[in-house]
Amino acid sequence: MASPHRRDFALIVIGSGISGLFVALEARHLGPVLVLTKGSIDDCNTRWAQGGIAAAVGPLDSPGQHLADTISAGAGLVNEHAARVLCYEAPARIHDLVTYGVAFDSLDGEVALGREAAHSRSRVLHAGGDRTGAEIETALSAAAMDPSITILDYTLATRLVVTNGRVTGVEAVALESGATETYEAPTVVLATGGAGQLYSHTTNPDVATGDGIALAFDAGAEIADIEFYQFHPTALRVPGVPTFLISEAVRGEGATLRNARGEAFMARYHPLGDLAPRDIVARAIVAEMRPAEAESVALDCTGLKSVDLAARFPAIFAYCSSAGIDMRTDPIPVSPAAHYLMGGVRTDIHGRTTLPGLYACGEVACTGVHGANRLASNSLMETVVFGKRVVEHIESGERGSAAARPDATPATGPAGAAPTHHELQRVMWDGAGIERNAEGMERALATIASWPAPDAAPTRPAFERRQMTVMASLMLRAAMARTESRGAHYRSDYPATDDAHWKKQQVFVRAE
Ligand SMILES: Cc1cc2nc3c(=O)[nH]c(=O)nc-3n(C[C@H](O)[C@H](O)[C@H](O)COP(=O)(O)OP(=O)(O)OC[C@H]3O[C@@H](n4cnc5c(N)ncnc54)[C@H](O)[C@@H]3O)c2cc1C
């Protein structure tokens, strides 16, 4: 496609997952919208979401109950104001998604609602069985084929342009030609997703390298809750087979985790058993694998005779089959994998970052709704609830940014960049994984500091390594500073939660 005129846009959105496409669609009436995305339009975390999207739409449910569950999962750090917005606006955003063509599954004429860990009600809407994310991405991509929206795929955003303290555009590289271009607009929305690629084992696709957080940090925006990274307890672990998520919804249907002795162990760790919060399940699995020196535990679906597993979980069923596992008769080998970043670019309830002109929404943002631990299926909902608010706020014409935090800690980026993707992943898996301690994190930071200066070439691999190194360095520093365990952040040297000192958010900002 010929390069569009670089100044023609009312809004630039970086990213084409659910957040980016939803914002672009909602903002069409404001003027021409430019979407930059570094891969194909559907190369994103969204496409892989399985379990579904949470909203209190069932007759036995209420937004208040959804809010209570969200606050409880977040281990004392949920921003209650933002979480209230999330839970009370969720049903209306489901309606918006349906309007854009998302066909949620139904049962006997009613919307089908799944149950996931730490939800006290069945409130997870799904589409195409376990292909919820793919169904959403397909519907929004089709809707975004609109004359008001220009989508530049294979275009890597490499820098936020800041003029007199305000974000005024984006520098980007067209990956096929190598040409660098600067696009200008009064408003830029970061919708760049998460950072699972920081770890050796992850459910996230290759694009999830935390670019947006590092872009925002470099531009001077505040970054919050970055030490809280959620590891999904159950990813398929078969040697030689790429990691694949086995959704919590499988346990929601009654599947059981078993150790090497065949024992169902979760009741020993939490009253909710197999549906305990994710961090507890992930650590329990690690604890059960350790004595047996096992690489995995077993997820046993063989007792689910009343569930048609192939129909309810078509993607999981097909993937397991391709790995030689019939989930009706064989236990599925699973172990934890990096999955979701609770922290990110700090925003207020309108998606405003602390930099004027820059909004963030979706996994790249930290609205505070997840606190120290995300409640399953709240993340897809967060993208659309706050995506809508971003557009409403832009439309209101009110300028300015979210209030800066006076207690933000000044931080510098790393001096160097990781020599290889795999080495960085290993350093993070070992140093800032499911269990952390000071010794491991200091070693990881020292390794990162010893790496050579970044490659100046604006290739995607070199750029991503640089962004991941910024992320790794921030995450390690935040995790080292938090001398307690809370939610997804577990320190073996500080196993207790310390409310007296740490019932608070950590915020970082680039040192001047
Ligand atoms: C396997 C899996 C299962 C999940 N299941 C669920 C679930 O059941 N329910 C739920 O609520 N959540 C689930 N999640 C989480 C949820 O899918 C994500 O949090 C959500 O999709 C994030 O959407 P997003 O639009 O913010 O980011 P993404 O969908 O990841 O999109 C990010 C976009 O930004 C682009 N991008 C990144 N950097 C740049 C750059 N420098 N320049 C240009 N473009 C860039 C990417 O290419 C991509 O298009 C799951 C996640 C995974 C990985």
Mean of the pLDDT scores? 94
Q: Let me know the number of strands.
A: 23
Bound chemical compounds: flavin-adenine dinucleotide
**Continuous helix count:** 14
Q: Order of strands across the biggest sheet?
A: 8-2-1-12-20
Helix content: 25-40%
Instruction: Give a short account of the largest sheet.
Output: 5 strands, parallel
CATH architecture descriptor name of the domain at 233-338: Alpha-Beta Complex
CATH superfamily of the domain at 233-338: Succinate dehydrogenase/fumarate reductase flavoprotein, catalytic domain
Helix-strand makeup class: alpha/beta
State the low-pLDDT regions, or none: none
CATH class of the domain at 233-338: Alpha Beta
Task: Provide structural commentary.
The chain has 512 residues and is an alpha/beta fold. 32% of the residues lie in helices and 18% in strands. It has a domain at 233-338: Succinate dehydrogenase/fumarate reductase flavoprotein, catalytic domain (Flavocytochrome C3, Chain A, domain 1). The chain has helices spanning 18-26, 63-73, 80-99, 132-143, 211-219, 248-252, 278-292, 309-312, 314-322, 378-396, 421-431, 438-449, 460-481, 499-502, and strands at residues 11-14, 33-36, 53-54, 106-107, 110-111, 113-114, 124-125, 149-152, 155-163, 166-174, 180-184, 188-190, 223-224, 229-236, 244-245, 256-258, 297-300, 332-341, 344-346, 358-360, 365-366, 409-411, 507-510. It has a 5-stranded parallel beta sheet, with helices on one face. The chain has a 5-stranded mixed beta sheet with strand order 21-19-13-23-22, covered by helices on one side. Strands 15-14-18-17-16 form a 5-stranded antiparallel beta sheet. The radius of gyration is 22 Å and the shape is globular. The model has no long low-confidence stretch (mean pLDDT 94). The structure holds flavin-adenine dinucleotide.
